[in-house]
Amino acid sequence: TNVVIPIAQSNQTLITWEGQVTMRAPEANELYSFGLHQGVAGIEEGNSNLKTEFGLQNHLNTLVHFHTITLRADAYAYLFNNFINLEPTGELRTTIRGAFPVFKYNQYRLALLTGVDGMIDIEASDNLTLEFKSSFLYAQNLSEAIPLAWMPANRAEFGMNVALPDFKAVKKPEWKLSALLVARQWRLLPGQDFMAPPPGYTLFNSSVSFRIPANKNLFQVSIAAENLLNHAYRDFLNRWKYFSDEIGRNIILSVKYIF
């Protein structure tokens, strides 16, 4: 069931509350997995005693327009009964293929996930748009009064989009530059993972896109560079963090033909 209630509404502001009751039966892999997951170099074990998961979800959504500024914010609180979570066990199991970390599906009577997602768009000029996005999460195993394991770290992203003038056959060129800041996941107790959470990191990304008309058709071209400074880092949620750094500088060329 889902209920949406408007709280405030005007030409510039819209605030709504959304409530939802959810029910989810355990999936087959959560119940019966037992073996090596080759893609993440880890052993996963299901739990045949898992029960149906129930959730009570609350959202407070805010949308505000003020001249050239647009603000979107979503504050949420999810309360779960019989919350299912895949977590490290602390065991390294030796097999004929080597030693691998073991993960198991656990279930908790009460769990809380709450936080805020926000975004601000600023039209600084006709050709320049600034953007700020952030995500903050607090996840707690209420049954045992400890943090929930394997939850995303808090993060923020700053970016700008610049609309460039057309140049001969090149139409609607646009340049984007962004900086992603990811904090260290400090809400983790010793023993909840195989290693201490990796440090936070900052990544710079950039891209250029444009269009080239071809008679009645169109070529759409994009050149993107991820991790521009080739920074060495490890992401908390990537299970390859136990073995190696994340990918370095990555250049992506995309060409789309629209007809």
Describe this structure in words.
- By secondary structure, the protein is mainly beta.
- The chain has one helix and 14 strands.
- It has one helix at 28-32; strands spanning 2-9, 13-24, 34-37, 42-45, 53-66, 69-95, 98-123, 128-141, 146-147, 155-163, 171-182, 201-214, 217-226, 250-258.
- Strand 3 and strand 4 (42-45) form a beta hairpin.
- The two termini are 42 Å apart.
- The mean pLDDT is 94.
Summarize the structure.
The protein has 259 residues and is mainly β.
Helical content band: under 10%
Largest sheet: 14 strands, mixed
| Unreliable residue runs | none
Helix-strand makeup class: mainly beta
User: Count the strands?
Assistant: 14
Shape: globular
User: Whole-number average pLDDT?
Assistant: 94
